[in-house]
């Protein structure tokens, strides 16, 4: 193995470790914070998913350069195909994260730019967030005359994110097994 191949292998493995791990953690923890209605954390996880999904292209590109045109090998073709499938599922997860974020903001009555304002005035923003949280709790319990039907905000998105995140993690594991046992 030449030194340039070693460098490509190091970059390929490094990108795999430092992008796929955080990406999987972000996507798999999103449903929990949607259920808790934590808009700040869901926004952070959405941003993390987008950034690391883009960074995961480095895994694919360095693997492509490392393959040197040996695409006739089954394990290599299958790994690349599974990676592309996982990347497409990541686009769906990221879309659902954005949609869940919009639904959570609408349910809390928080405008989209309120997080930027909270950095400027943390006391007022935290007081508004506490009031919104109390209002949400009252709605869930039906204390303000509402039936509590709005209790499960973004349930469809949360379920889809959970399912696709599990499938994506499984795809990463299958690719890893193929890479090790080729």
From TrEMBL:
Residues covered by region (Disordered): 115-149
Transmembrane annotation, as ranges: 6-28, 49-67, 73-93, 161-181
Keyword line: Membrane, Transmembrane, Transmembrane helix
Low complexity bias spans: 115-127
Basic and acidic residues composition bias: residue spans: 128-144
UniProt superkingdom: Bacteria
Name this polypeptide is given: DUF2269 family protein
Native organism: Actinomadura harenae
């Amino acid at each position: 193995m030449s030194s340039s191949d070693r460098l490509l292998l190091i970059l390929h493995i490094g990108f795999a470790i430092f992008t796929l791990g955080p990406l999987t953690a972000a996507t798999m923890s999103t449903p929990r914070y949607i259920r808790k209605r934590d808009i700040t954390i869901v926004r952070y996880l959405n941003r993390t998913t987008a950034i690391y999904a883009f960074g995961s292209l480095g895994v694919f590109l360095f693997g492509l350069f490392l393959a040197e045109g040996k695409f006739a090998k089954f394990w290599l073709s299958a790994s690349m195909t599974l990676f592309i499938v996982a990347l497409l599922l990541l686009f769906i997860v990221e879309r659902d994260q954005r949609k869940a974020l919009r639904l959570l903001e609408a349910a809390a009555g928080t405008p989209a730019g309120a997080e930027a304002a909270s950095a400027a005035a943390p006391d007022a923003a935290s007081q508004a967030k506490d009031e919104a949280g109390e209002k949400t709790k009252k709605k869930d319990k039906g204390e303000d005359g509402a039936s509590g039907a709005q209790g499960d905000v973004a349930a469809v998105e949360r379920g889809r994110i959970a399912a696709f995140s599990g499938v994506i993690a499984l795809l990463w594991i299958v690719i890893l097994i193929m890479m090790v046992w080729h």
